């Protein structure tokens, strides 16, 4: 496994781990996985909960499967997550699933994939309906090489907007990583998979009584879970010690990867990697990526996100957004370029010119520029024929006599004068 691939140390199987590399399992587990895969494929073409038709299998993991689905009445594409039946016996997995549904239903933000439905199938399997995000995840983009700094700022800003919305509701993602960030056309970022989130249930607008609410803690005190490559140093004290600044640390690692194409630390051992997070300062960009040109103003910003002491980092997502906006790099330029390269050009009837400035427009109105008659646009029909006659009369004086006509006129005048002279004699 390369340093930029994820080494998850968790109490449960990472749902998408198999998308990164094949599992090293014995024959019995391999047979169980194959059986689960066949069962997942059997759902294609079926309709669940009387309204969601399963169209295709998108991903398969240890916890369950993710499908492309369609609401049969609204004809809208959705993402459908279904837990494996055997996962229903694991209360931790079920709690994580319920947590993802809860968070996705209560955060209304364009940079977070929202959940719209949650329930059980006839066989007892839990299902979750999520917004379908068409595009790549950020991990796929990073594997293609370093990203342009302007694009990094653009993507990071959107991630922060999503995090700010979650943090305002007392929700900490706690498993922020490139594979949990989807990028749509135009590089629109959406956060997904809040299964490990720390939720302050009291801040959510829930309608159920306290005894019916999901538990606020996933595991026992002192247990560490998440993805080691992006885990904040303070997680060593247990996940209860983690707050929104841990999400900002994970974003710092992701920005480092986006800019350099490499993780700050080289290690394939989870314990050694976490020790780097706790004690090793991130190397300068020039050391990890000497051939990549990165604006100097980005290094201290990323460095502050990667501070070992959470109190030395930015205090919240809003503060990071302000720091990004203060940079000389403009994310709007990247966004416009990305949209132009991704989206279909508008039809000819739609104007794509930017609006004119009032001063320029007023100046143009005062001194209109006349185009030659051959270049003038076709005129609309006049209300009365008299308008055309008047227009023609106004244009007649503008015609200049040709040189030939002028010469003939002069000769005729001379001839008349000569005839008059000789007649008088």
TrEMBL record:
GO terms for molecular function: ATP binding; protein serine/threonine kinase activity. SUPFAM superfamilies: Protein kinase-like (PK-like). Residues 1-30, 338-399 are annotated as: Disordered. Gene3D superfamilies: Phosphorylase Kinase, domain 1, Transferase(Phosphotransferase) domain 1. Coiled coil: none annotated. It comes from the Bacteria. SMART domains: S_TKc (SM00220). Pfam families: Pkinase. The keyword Ribonucleoprotein does not apply. The chain crosses the membrane at residues 404-423. Residues 1-12 have a biased composition (Low complexity). Residues 354-369 have a biased composition (Basic and acidic residues). CDD domains: STKc_PknB_like. InterPro entries: Kinase-like_dom_sf, Prot_kinase_dom, Ser/Thr_kinase_AS. Residues 52-327 form the Protein kinase domain. Keywords: ATP-binding, Kinase, Membrane, Nucleotide-binding, Serine/threonine-protein kinase, Transferase, Transmembrane, Transmembrane helix. This is Serine/threonine protein kinase. It comes from Polyangium jinanense.
